[in-house]
Structures are given as structure tokens and as C-alpha cells.
Amino acid sequence: MPFDIPPTAAAAVERGLTAAFGVGRPDAVKPLGGGLSGARIFKIRVGGIAYLLRLEVERDGFRDPARAYACMGVAAAGMLAPRVRYANADDGVAIMDFIEERPLSLEYRGSHDDLVVEVAQTARALHGGPPFPPLVDYLDGVDALIARFQARGLVAPEAMGELLALHGRLRRGYRTAPGDLVASHNDLNPRNILYDGARLWLVDWESAFLADRYVDLACLANLFAHTQADEDLLLATYFGRVDEEMRARLYLMRQVNHLFYGLVTAAGVGASIPRAPTLDGPSLAQIHDALTYGDFDLASDEGRMAYVKARLAAALEGLRAPGFETALARLGY
């Protein structure tokens, strides 16, 4: 087995290659950068064709290959995820078609409105498909992340007080509507939305489970809906109409999405980073612009900490705004 494959996974990878292609070794192996999931990702070639090899190296109550592979299989069957050539949850080995990615922000073939429509249609297709396995109430999961973050002490308690108090009001006022539990990806960040020059693909399903449809919609809105017109286009494409309850639910979940990504990113910040006394720093928009052009290092502890503060500050800004009170009132709180 090539040296890039961890020796402890060699036998499992050989089983997967043999089952998928009838060979025990790939022609070539190239490690690829992964996210925060802990998975090891490789580009391999078999018979001159590129595939993606994914090895799950960490497991806990949340990182469960059996659930993730089940969700991935449903999405692949719906042509929303790359074709799965092999997946064995016990071994933590999956092999799927490799997507030659092109920068979505720089090379998308249509207008910004076209992109908003396409991401909304993609989410609608995913949510309209077979339901995913349940795991946890999404907002309960966010509460667990908050508890871990507070115990870690990365940000001074006085800098988090108002944000957590406002989030508590949101928790008391938001309830998932009947019928809104759907097959949800739950992590539609830019690294998990691939563009091949013709269409979008969704990848990395370790966070997928049955959840509120507004979880994915809020993530897409925070990425692509920069104006009220963008947001209404997203909703109208997804639902076929727009009403004030939809706007209210999306507004509230957008703030939860900011909070979620701040908390999740915090888990990857090293112990050497000092406690932040405030949430001051580069804005989320500034960081996203820098990431587009390769001018921001999200892999460093300093970069991740800046991103944590920017996401938490964005959530606080949204919860302070008049739209928060309006949304709560619209949902009857």
C-alpha cells in the first residue's frame, strides 16, 4: 500500500479497492486537506481515473460513519452527491467519484441570482428526498456546543453574556414547524459545496441527520443572500412563495448558523491561544473576502480564532437588530 495511506487502514482500504475495482492497490495516492471532522481525505487513481478516498479516523456519538454513509448514499442516489463506489461503516472507508472542483466564487457560469436559484433548488431536492436518520434536536445540539465552548474559556464571559442571553430568548421562541423535519446536510459551508464548471455537488455528510429545513436554508442564506432581495429569491425558489413566517424563521436560524460555526471552529483552536477579552476583530465579510483570494489562513490557530470571533460577532449583531424582535413576534413569542 502506498506510504500516504496510514498503515492501520491499509487492510481496510485494500478491501474497499478490491470490492470496488477488483484491485488491491491504487495507481497513485495524494493526500488532500480536510476540514474539522478529523477524516483523512485522499485523491487516488485506479486505472487512470481519479476517485476520492475518505478514511474516518475519529468516532464518537456524533461522528458516526453508519449514519453519514447512509445519508451520503441517499444523496448520491438523488444525484446530489458524487457517485459512491464503496462505503463500509465498520472500516470507516468510503470511495466516491472525484469532482474536479472550480472556484465557485470566481468561475460560476451564471449571475449571482442564478447561483441563489441553483443553491435553493439543490436544497429543495435534498429536503424533498427520503428522510435521513434522526440524531438530536438541532438547537439542543447547539446548546451542547455552547456548554463546551463556555467550559473551554476561549472568550471572556463578559464578552459572551449578551449573545448568550439573546440566544436564550431565541431558543424559547423558536419551535420547528410540523413538516419541517427533513433530510438535512447541516454543514453547507463553501468546502462542502463543489462546483465542477457545470453544476453543484454536495459532499461531506458526517453532520447530516433529520433536522429543521431552515438549518440548511440559513447556511445558504449566510453564504449567498446578501440582500433582502437575495433572501426572498432563495425562499421563493425553494417554497414557490414567500411569507412573513418564512422570513422570520430564516432570520432567526441565520443567527443560529453564525453561532454554530463560531462554536464548531472554536473546537479546532489550539490551547496556546490566549483568552479573547472581546469579540473585536476582522468582520466576517472581510474574512470571507480574504478567503476567496487566499489571503487568510483558516488552518492556523490565529486564523481560526479570528473566524470564531467574527462568527460570534455576526450572531450578536443579528440578535441585537430590530429584525430579531420582529421575527420573534411573528412566531408568537
What distinguishing features does this structure have?
alpha+beta; Aminoglycoside 3'-phosphotransferase, Chain: A, domain 2; globular; two-stranded antiparallel ribbon; five-stranded antiparallel beta sheet; Phosphorylase Kinase, domain 1; 333 residues; 2 domains
Describe, in plain words, how this protein is organized in 3D.
It is globular, with a radius of gyration of 20 Å. Helix 4 (112-127) packs antiparallel against helix 7 and helix 9 (244-266) crosses helix 12. Strands 1-2-3-5-4 form a 5-stranded antiparallel sheet, sandwiched between helices. It folds into 2 domains: 7-97, Phosphorylase Kinase, domain 1 (2-Layer Sandwich), CATH 3.30.200.20; 104-330, Aminoglycoside phosphotransferase (APH), C-terminal lobe (Aminoglycoside 3'-phosphotransferase, Chain: A, domain 2). It contains 12 helices and 9 strands. The protein is of the alpha+beta class and 333 residues long. Helix content is 49%, strand content 13%.
